[in-house]
Amino acid sequence: MRYRITFIAGLAVGYVLGAKAGRARYEQIAGTARRVVESPAVQETAGIVGAQVSSAGKTVATKVGDRLPVTSVRDFLARPTPEEAQDMDAASAEAGSGLNGTGPEGARPGSTR
Questions:
Q1: In sequence order, what DSSP letters do the residues of the chain get, joined into one string?
Q2: How far apart are CA 5 and CA 7, in angstroms?
Q3: How far is CA 112 from the centre of its chain?
Q4: Whose CA, among 2, 44, 60, 87, lies 20 to 30 Å from 16?
Q5: pLDDT in tens, the chain (113 residues)
Q6: What pTM, to 2 d.p., does this model score?
């Protein structure tokens, strides 16, 4: 409860001080921020950092791609689990022995006609 009261008090003080500063001070701060962002030095630095991040991202993607045998999340999720792989192996072994998964008279095992 103490933190809530402190937060509300801080909010009230901020509101009062902001209201006293007024629109003119807000415009001054916003104008300064715009000048900084639009300055050529900041633009150049942002371009260099962006290029480095892009290059690093490509390098990481290449290294991860080399180490992981899976090419995509979809491929990874489409792979059978070990249990499914065993079931598929058992089914292919059954199919190879001439059985088609049906019992006597074409009924599936465990089903009633």
A1: -HHHHHHHHHHHHHHHHHHHHHHHHHHHHHHHHHHHHHSHHHHHHHHHHHHHHHHHHHHHHHHHHHH-S-S-HHHHHHSPPHHHHHHHHHHHHHHHTT--S--GGGPPTT---
A2: 5
A3: 48
A4: 2
A5: 778 888 888 888 888 777 777 888 778 878 888 998 899 998 999 899 989 988 888 888 788 777 776 566 667 777 788 888 888 888 877 766 555 555 555 555 555 54
A6: 0.37
DSSP notation for 36-68: HHHSHHHHHHHHHHHHHHHHHHHHHHHHHHHH-
C-alpha–C-alpha distance, residues 76 and 70, integer Å: 6
Report CA Rg, the chain.
34
Q: In this structure, are residues 49 and 41 in contact, taking their beta carbons and an 8 Å threshold?
A: no
